[in-house]
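ok new one. same drill as before - structure tokens go in, u give me an amino acid for every spot. 960 of them this time. try not to just spam alanines like last time pls lmao
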């Protein structure tokens, strides 16, 4: 796409064999645009109205009418860009009203700075740069991170970075500076991370002779500050990361901080306080505003693997003040993460083996989402490429990845990102000085999960990992090649001379990793070839010119900008589910099967009629299991993050390992684990991540945290799918529920049970014509508090059942509720229970709910689980579906037909309304996504890397 004019040696890199002209500056060649035609003139523009509301109460959050966008932009992308990125007060002449204005504001600023600082050979090259950059944004090929769209080209400080790393030393002055600098970054809407390991431990003495407070104590003050400041003036919490080295004497207290707070949340919740995320009482809990990570080294991991001892060292003297069992400490980390998702883990030696600037200091921390890792007091600006834009289909239906155009776009973006550092503003002087000296960039991509599915690759497969690795290698190799070319034009970064040997060594490591990487098929092999050529150029040009940038690539969450580009998947993540929620132009919404599914089926060789039948099955069932004509060996291609066929936790780790050797930084990703995961499973993930060379990871066990929000019911006058306030219906008759009492004689079943050593009895009585109507629970001695609470609970549930509350509603609300006693049971169908009520309602579901209903809730008998292991399906086979087998398939209450044999025409729970793809997946799959509700619009967010993203309004809980 571009060439440089810094001498004859550069002519060999020019497109079409043309020689570079003498002098300095880049020659920019056209890839997408046409001479004499502006990119804006090649698309059809539309005027649309943007009205965004809070679905919980119908209030209008944002409204701007008559905005101008291309006709191929989705409703969601238009809404997010208009509400988040257009500048100027709404309703004033200064307010931006067109995507053209937004793109021009940013792109012309980049062009002017590039011309001012000598990046382009001629004015014509500057114009081509402007047009190509505008085209790529206009057609959703890539997007800069949110601060660029917020700030560039405005009168406010032109901050372009989303990621910051701070530092703190062992002095009160430095600690107070930390609080101030972090607060200023939060105020600007960004996040920050830092390592607290320089602060002496609570087991060391101060110069006055007293004991030091320790880093955990100072974390309280920073946590309170973060919880008080509304990040970026919004209602979301600040994003921050706190890191502590594993050899710090206070490491055990650091590991346990959130575990103890989680216990406090449970106790307060059980006492009646509102402890849901965003609840009135959750603010009384500490340490909830940061992600915590332990920085481990190879010595510790080897000791943990081999069962050795490990020394905790004083901060001031470096002497070992205690030796601990390394395996026990790693186990303690896994236990904490299993309970509350913290701490995450960062592999220090792996990180610093790939450090380009070790002579200037070690890498000791990361940004809040863990993808940016470099020197303290630095920042990184991000940009992400939409991978699906480079998937090509030829006339014969064969697919290929357009490696050449991908490399050209990468060169364009890296050039623009480096230019931005020339004019960018920064929140502190230290960060400004260091960022200008090292010029860290973070190019990445989005839509990997969609690309893999569209090309017929399973996410957890050798072919999928080969394609992901090849693209990542080509991206980073091209980025560093352009960085070396820029060094020949405008000079290397200031810290390069001091770090030149280490930087070239890391480039050779990347090239070596590229050379030994596993090749897959006809799709990734040409990409690997292009990457190999790029890394050869990196080594040659780096030796000649050095490098303009100390860092080039990361894999960020791509939250808001992913919506801007209409990406199906964020960052390195797989697809959420096969059925999507789609907003329609002019109002309304619909659920659709992912557009990538038909492409995948055609890639796998299915004919149009077969594709149509399979897509219809997915639309009805939400998965591909038993889809007509679909081969079982192809099921894995359609595995998603949620659903009956979800990707295994280790599959996520293996994908991270496939991309990591080809990234300057790290990967923002949380390894989601099912609720059945054990502490051993978490520990295995930590060890495997280290062995596979991942730089950092975090785990989240489903339903492990108490502070999860509950969806609120929509009030009268709430919004329609079009986003406008719907008129409240006229009330004519007010219907009240009628209690249907049980007769004097009633069938029932009594079950004895043991949960975590606590014994009890449950009697469940049903109506003669079927249907549970009464529950009695007996535990502890008569007159005790527990016995009284169980009696009251039984009465409340029984009355609710008799007033028509469906049993499945109770089951969905009370299963997975955690409190003591919990643990093993004596019931073969429910071997583990997280609490007594968890066991009770699982047992009731097995006894009284039809198979389809409880299967959607993830509740199966021992026999059904064994059937799933043998056949891949929980459902009884045709040969089993007869009267005799049905009568034996589950315990039956006396005098009532078996639940599995009941007709399906019984009252069901009220239909739920979906407001985005996460909520739709929950409804269709019968699952619960452990994610907060968006504070701005009330819809449930979804994971984007290690952050959360709202599909409704574009808000994020971290970097965007």
């Amino acid at each position: 796409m571009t060439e440089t004019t810094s001498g004859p040696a550069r002519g060999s890199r020019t497109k079409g064999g043309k020689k570079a002209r003498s002098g300095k500056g880049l020659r920019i060649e056209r890839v997408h645009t046409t001479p004499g035609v502006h990119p804006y003139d090649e698309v059809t523009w539309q005027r649309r109205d943007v009205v965004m509301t809070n679905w919980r109460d119908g209030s209008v959050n944002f409204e701007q009418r008559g905005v101008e966008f291309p006709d191929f932009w989705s409703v969601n992308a238009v809404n997010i860009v208009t509400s988040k990125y257009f500048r100027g007060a709404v309703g004033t002449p200064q307010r931006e009203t067109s995507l053209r204005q937004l793109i021009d504001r940013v792109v012309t600023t980049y062009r002017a700075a590039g011309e001012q600082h000598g990046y382009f050979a001629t004015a014509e090259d500057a114009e081509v740069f402007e047009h190509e950059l505008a085209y790529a944004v206009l057609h959703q090929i890539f997007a800069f991170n949110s601060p660029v769209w917020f700030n560039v080209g405005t009168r406010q400080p032109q901050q372009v970075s989303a990621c910051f790393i701070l530092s703190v030393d062992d002095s009160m002055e430095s600690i107070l500076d930390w609080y101030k600098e972090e607060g200023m970054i939060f105020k600007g809407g960004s996040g920050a991370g830092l390592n607290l390991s320089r602060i002496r431990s609570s087991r060391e003495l101060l110069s006055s002779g007293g004991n030091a407070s320790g880093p955990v104590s100072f974390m309280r003050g920073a946590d309170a500050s973060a919880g008080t400041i509304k990040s970026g003036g919004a209602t979301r919490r600040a994003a921050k990361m706190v890191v502590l080295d594993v050899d710090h004497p206070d490491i055990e207290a650091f590991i346990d901080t959130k575990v103890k707070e989680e216990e406090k949340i449970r106790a307060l919740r059980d006492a009646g306080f509102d402890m849901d995320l965003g609840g009135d009482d959750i603010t009384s809990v500490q340490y909830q505003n940061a992600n915590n990570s332990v920085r481990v080294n190879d010595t510790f991991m080897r000791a943990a693997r081999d069962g050795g001892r490990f020394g905790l060292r004083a901060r001031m003297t470096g002497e070992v003040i205690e030796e601990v069992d390394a395996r026990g400490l790693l186990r303690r980390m896994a236990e904490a993460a299993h309970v509350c998702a913290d701490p995450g883990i960062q592999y220090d030696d792996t990180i610093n083996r790939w450090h380009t600037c070790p002579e200037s200091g070690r890498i000791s921390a990361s940004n809040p989402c863990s993808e940016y890792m470099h020197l303290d007091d630095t920042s990184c600006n991000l940009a992400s490429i939409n991978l699906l834009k480079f998937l090509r289909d030829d006339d014969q239906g064969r697919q290929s990845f357009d490696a050449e155009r991908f490399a050209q776009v990468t060169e364009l973006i890296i050039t623009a990102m480096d230019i931005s550092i020339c004019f960018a503003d920064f929140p502190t002087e230290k960060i400004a000085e260091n960022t200008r000296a090292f010029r860290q960039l973070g190019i990445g991509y989005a839509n990997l999960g969609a690309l893999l599915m569209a090309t017929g690759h399973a996410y957890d497969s050798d072919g999928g990992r080969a394609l992901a690795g090849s693209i990542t290698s080509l991206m980073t190799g091209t980025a560093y090649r352009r960085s070396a070319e820029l060094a020949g034009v405008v000079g290397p970064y200031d810290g390069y001379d001091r770090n030149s040997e280490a930087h070239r060594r890391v480039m050779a490591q990347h090239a070596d990793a590229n050379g030994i990487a596993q090749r897959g098929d006809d799709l990734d092999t040409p990409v690997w070839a292009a990457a190999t050529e790029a890394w050869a150029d990196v080594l040659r040009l780096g030796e000649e010119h050095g490098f303009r940038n100390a860092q080039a690539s990361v894999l960020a969450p791509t939250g808001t900008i992913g919506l801007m580009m209409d990406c199906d998947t964020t960052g390195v993540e797989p697809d959420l589910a096969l059925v999507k929620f789609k907003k329609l132009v002019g109002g309304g919404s619909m659920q659709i099967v992912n557009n990538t599914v038909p492409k995948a089926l055609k890639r796998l060789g299915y004919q149009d009629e077969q594709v149509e039948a399979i897509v219809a099955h997915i639309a009805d069932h939400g998965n591909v299991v038993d889809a007509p004509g679909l081969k079982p060996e192809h099921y894995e291609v359609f595995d998603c993050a949620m659903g009956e066929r979800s990707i295994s936790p280790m599959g996520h780790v293996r994908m991270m390992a496939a991309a990591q050797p080809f990234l300057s930084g790290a990967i923002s990703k949380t390894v989601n684990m099912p609720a059945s995961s054990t502490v051993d499973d978490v520990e295995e993930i930590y060890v495997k991540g280290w062995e596979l060379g991942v730089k950092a990871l975090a785990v989240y066990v489903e339903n492990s945290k108490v502070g999860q929000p509950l969806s609120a019911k929509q009030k009268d006058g709430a919004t329609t799918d079009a986003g406008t306030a719907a008129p409240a219906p006229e009330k004519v008759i007010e219907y009240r529920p009628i209690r249907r009492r049980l007769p004097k004689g009633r069938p029932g079943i009594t079950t004895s049970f043991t949960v975590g050593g606590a014994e009890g009895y449950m009697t469940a009585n049903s109506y003669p014509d079927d249907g549970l109507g009464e529950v009695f629970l007996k535990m502890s001695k008569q007159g005790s508090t527990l016995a009284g609470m169980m009696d009251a609970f039984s009465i409340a549930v029984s009355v609710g059942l008799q007033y028509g509350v469906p049993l499945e509603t109770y089951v969905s609300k009370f299963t997975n509720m955690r409190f003591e006693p919990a643990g093993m049971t004596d019931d073969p169908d429910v071997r583990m229970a997280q609490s007594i009520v968890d066991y009770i309602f699982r047992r009731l579901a097995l006894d009284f709910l039809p198979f389809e209903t409880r299967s959607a809730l993830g509740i199966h008998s021992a026999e059904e689980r064994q059937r799933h292991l043998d056949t891949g399906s929980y459902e009884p086979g045709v040969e089993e579906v007869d009267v005799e087998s049905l009568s034996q398939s589950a315990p039956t209450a006396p005098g009532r037909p078996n639940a599995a044999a009941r007709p399906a025409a019984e009252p069901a729970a009220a239909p739920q309304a979906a407001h985005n793809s996460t909520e739709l997946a929950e409804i269709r799959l019968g699952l619960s996504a452990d994610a907060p509700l968006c504070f701005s619009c009330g819809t449930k967010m979804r994971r984007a890397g290690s952050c959360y993203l709202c599909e409704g309004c574009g808000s994020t809980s971290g970097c965007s």
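The chain has four domains: 2-159+367-560, 167-360, 575-646, 748-901. and btw The longest strand covers residues 60-70.
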